[in-house]
Amino acid sequence: MRPQRRVPDLAVAPKGAFDDEQEWHDPSAVLLVAEVTSTSTGDRDRETKILGYARAGIPVYLFIDREEAEVTVFSEPSADRYAKALKCKLGMVVPLPSPLGFDVDTAEF
């Protein structure tokens, strides 16, 4: 069975993690993925992609929901879900958990 592949709006990984010319990579180096909703992608970002990212063990999923004017930080992946979810209104400073451990100011989002 071919693995399901996802293309996030943003991926954060250590420098050099993807320095080869492969089209697809093992997601184990990825520290964070982010999705920004649009009317055409919102449902996929909310339902399908979150499952794939959790299953892949991506430590942090930053979900920017423009329709709801909210940011959700999902962390602690386990099986096909994230154990933690911190929801904030856009415009707030949002803390990113380990392995990142810094804040993101969403005022400009």
TrEMBL record:
InterPro entries: Nuclease_put_TT1808 (IPR012296), Restrct_endonuc-II-like (IPR011335), Uma2 (IPR008538). It comes from the Bacteria. CDD domains: DUF820-like. One of its GO terms (molecular function) is endonuclease activity. Keywords: Endonuclease, Hydrolase, Nuclease. Residues 4-102 form the Putative restriction endonuclease domain. Gene3D superfamilies: tt1808, chain A. This is Uma2 family endonuclease. The lineage of its organism: Bacteria, Bacillati, Actinomycetota, Actinomycetes, Kitasatosporales.
